[in-house]
Amino acid sequence: MLFNSIDFAIFLPIVFFLYWFVANKNLKLQNFLIVLASYTFYGWWDWRFLSLILFSTIIDYSIGRKLQSEKKARNRKLLLWTSILVNLGFLGFFKYYNFFLDNFITAFSFFGTEIQASSLNIILPVGISFYTFQTLSYTIDVYKEKLEPTKNFIAFSAFVSFFPQLVAGPIERATNLLPQFYKKRTFEYNKAVDGLRQILWGLFKKIVIADNSAQIANEIFNNSADYSGSTLVLGALFFTFQIYGDFSGYSDIAIGTSRLFGFNLKQNFAFPYFSRDIAEFWRRWHMSLSTWFRDYLYIPLGGSRGGTWFKVRNTFIIFIVSGFWHGANWTFIVWGALNAIYFLPLLLLKKNRINTNNVAENKRLPSVREFMQIGTTFTITVFAWVFFRAENISHAFAYLSTIFSKSLFSFPDVTISKLYILQVVIMIILFITVEWNGRTSKHALEKIGLDWNKFYRLSLYFSIILFIIMFLGKEQQFIYFQF
């Protein structure tokens, strides 16, 4: 079920009504309703894959209970690895089986040995990368005794399948979200209204910015051989706004929807395109995944401790694995490696944490230095996104080679209506303006307009709704559903 669909527009009020007006006096009933709603939400796409979520839930719940009573270190480690191998085994089969098979065959062919093997027609379950990592965080934290294992199977099921963030995050830690299912929740008007504002902005990002940017980006990327370098730059820029509007828009809707039901999810995006260096960008982009890899992979590997070789090794591992998490394609691995190359100089020079505050803090506009830093970081990010969006490595290099040709200095020309492109550009400028003014908040509309006259504040909200209605009809599936 898509957030930007009529189905969800009907589904959400029904669940909200049942949750607060029927089950509001019974915590267990509220949690059971969330499980039922979550399974309905996911099953709307394909009910057959509900068995995967249920199986993962049962496995990690059972292992968590067993870890509590098991005292032998060897047995505890065996339980942990059982959880890791089962969860990553499912993820590996559905997401990476054909990738490894194809590359295995290619490798042997290179050495003159032909292997006869057929790829499988595997459907990738939506959101499997997200809920797999979420359940793994529970087992690992219980193993490390950072979290008390739950005895409440319904609460744990609700944690694993919580519908607002089930299919595209944020990837919640059990230490943050699971305890919220134990506590009685009361309706808070201010929290709900703020949630609605965040949902509204998330819909604007998705429908107005992402879906319309996708129309232009797809036309250019899908026909890149027909266009000049300057036009391909345009395509990369539109994809840059597409992926941000799409993914952060989903996160905003997920977090805002959770607030309607009394839950607080972690912030997943903190205005990353205003970053002054690539290290700051990765502290602000898909924060739930970045911190997951930091805590469960990078630090156990040794982090930034040790000599230069270990720092370089760990940095490349974390970025390449992050890239591979996104999909079974060498383009994602190169994208991850490229970001590692961007990041390494900052790490080795110990400058990776010099920009931890908000840009232009307590100022309306950035300084010239900050503006140049933002521009440089944004430029190298756009360059890396070409690999992320390309169909394969050959496509990516062909795309970039055209950009770095004489045609870069020609006037961009695309078959899509110039008026339509201008409209989208105007919307992006408005979008950047609002995001800039809300950059110190958890979401762009959190504080904007709160101290305005009621008429002007409502005018702002109705204007956003009007833009959403105006730009409807270019519906695109959320990009991160494929991950």
Describe what you observe in this structure:
This protein is mainly alpha-helical and 483 residues long. It is globular, with a radius of gyration of 23 Å. The longest helix has 38 residues, at 73-110. Helix 8 packs antiparallel against helix 9 (229-260). 38% of the residues are buried. It has helices at residues 6-22, 27-46, 50-69, 73-110, 128-143, 153-161, 174-177, 189-222, 229-260, 278-284, 287-298, 308-326, 330-348, 368-389, 393-403, 418-437, 454-470. The protein has two domains: 6-186, no CATH class; 190-276 and 355-482, no CATH class. The model has no long low-confidence stretch (mean pLDDT 90). It is built from 17 helices and no strands.
Task: Summarize this entry quickly.
This protein has helices at residues 6-22, 27-46, 50-69, 73-110, 128-143, 153-161, 174-177, 189-222, 229-260, 278-284, 287-298, 308-326, 330-348, 368-389, 393-403, 418-437, 454-470.
Q: Termini distance?
A: 16 Å
Radius of gyration: 23 Å
Total beta strands? 0
Unreliable stretches, pLDDT < 50, 5 or more residues? none
Q: Tell me the major beta sheet.
A: none
Overall pLDDT level: 90
Discrete helix count: 17
Domain count: 2
Beta-strand proportion:
under 5%
Structural class: mainly alpha
Which term fits the overall shape?
globular
- Helices and strands, in N-to-C order? HHHHHHHHHHHHHHHHH
Question: How helical, in percent, are the residues?
Answer: 55-70%
